[in-house]
C-alpha cells in the first residue's frame, strides 16, 4: 500500500467507524471489463467513436451507464429512444455480469470486508444498477458484509447523505473509498474524508491528486 499520508493505516484502524465503498476498481479489479464492454457496444460505428467512448469512460468511472449509454448513442448517431437505451443497457449487462463476478479482487480488500478486523460499518455505493449489484454480491457471497447497498439510479452523494442522516457518526470518522471523480465528489458533497484507490486507468484523472491514496489494501 502506498499513501500520501504516512499515518493512514493507523488512522484507518483507530478513527474510521463508517466506510462507504465503491465497487468496480475498489473491490473488484473490473474497470477494464466495463471499458471494453462499452467499446464493444459501439465499435461497429468506427474507431473514432470507440476511442472517444474509451477516453470518456476512463475519465468518468463513477458515472452510471444510464447516463453514459444515451451519450454514446448520440456520438454514434443512434436515435436516443427509451427502448433503444434499454436495449443497449441490457446488452451491456449481458456482456459484463459474469466477467465482473470472475474479475480478480483488489489485493487485500476481501480480507478487510469479510473479517472486518476493526469493527467498522461498511456501506456499498456504486453506479452499477441496483438489481445487477445485488446479483453480483450474491454470486460472490459478499452481501452480508454491508449494512446497506446502493446502486443506480441512486446517486452516490444522495446515498451517503441518507445514511449519515440516520447515524450519529462524526463526519471525520467516516470515509469514502473510491477510484473515480464521482466518488471524490460524493465525499466532498457530504464533508467526509476520501481515500483514492489508484490504478492504471485513473492515473491521468488523478495525476495532481495530493490526498490519501492506496494501490491496494494489503497493509490496512
Descriptive overview:
There is one protein chain. With 220 residues, the chain is α/β, with parallel strands linked by helices. It folds into 2 domains: 8-29 and 104-214, Rossmann fold, CATH 3.40.50.1000; 31-102. Helix content is 45%, strand content 13%. A 6-stranded parallel β-sheet has the order 3-2-1-4-5-6. The longest helix is centred in the middle third of the chain and has 21 residues, at 82-102.
Q: Radius of gyration over alpha carbons?
A: 17 Å
Proportion of residues in extended strands: 5-15%
Can you tell me the residue ranges where pLDDT is under 50 for at least 5 consecutive residues? Answer: none
- Strand ordering within the main sheet: 3-2-1-4-5-6
Series of secondary-structure elements, N-terminal to C-terminal: HEHHHHHEHEHEHEE
Gross morphology: globular
Mean pLDDT: 93
Count of distinct structural domains = 2
Number of helices: 9
Features:
220 residues, alpha/beta, Rossmann fold, 2 domains, 6-stranded parallel β-sheet, 9 helices, 6 strands
Short précis:
This protein has 220 residues and is an alpha/beta fold.
Task: Give a topology summary.
Blueprint: H1 8-14, E1 18-21, H2 31-42, H3 47-59, H4 65-75, H5 82-102, H6 109-115, E2 121-129, H7 130-139, E3 148-152, H8 156-165, E4 174-178, H9 181-189, E5 194-197, E6 213-214
Amino acid at each position: 500500500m502506498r499513501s500520501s499520508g504516512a499515518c493512514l493505516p493507523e488512522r484507518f484502524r483507530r478513527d474510521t467507524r463508517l466506510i462507504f465503498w465503491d465497487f468496480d476498481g475498489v473491490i473488484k479489479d473490473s474497470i477494464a471489463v466495463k471499458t471494453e464492454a462499452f467499446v464493444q457496444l459501439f465499435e461497429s460505428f468506427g474507431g473514432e467513436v470507440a476511442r472517444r467512448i474509451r477516453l470518456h469512460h476512463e475519465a468518468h468511472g463513477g458515472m452510471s451507464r444510464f447516463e453514459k449509454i444515451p451519450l454514446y448513442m448520440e456520438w454514434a448517431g443512434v436515435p436516443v429512444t427509451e427502448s433503444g437505451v434499454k436495449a443497449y443497457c441490457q446488452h451491456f449487462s449481458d456482456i459484463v455480469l459474469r466477467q465482473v463476478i470472475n474479475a480478480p479482487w483488489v489485493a487485500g480488500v476481501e480480507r478487510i470486508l469479510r473479517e472486518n478486523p476493526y469493527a467498522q460499518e461498511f456501506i456499498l455505493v456504486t453506479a452499477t444498477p441496483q438489481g445487477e449489484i445485488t446479483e453480483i454480491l450474491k454470486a460472490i457471497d459478499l452481501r452480508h458484509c454491508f449494512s446497506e447497498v446502493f446502486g443506480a439510479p441512486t446517486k452516490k452523494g444522495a446515498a451517503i447523505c441518507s445514511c449519515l442522516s440516520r447515524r450519529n457518526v462524526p463526519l471525520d470518522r467516516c470515509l469514502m473509498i473510491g477510484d473515480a471523480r464521482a466518488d471524490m465528489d460524493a465525499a466532498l458533497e457530504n464533508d467526509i474524508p476520501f481515500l483514492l484507490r489508484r490504478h492504471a486507468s485513473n492515473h491521468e484523472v488523478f495525476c495532481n491528486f495530493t490526498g490519501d491514496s492506496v494501490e491496494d489494501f494489503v497493509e490496512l
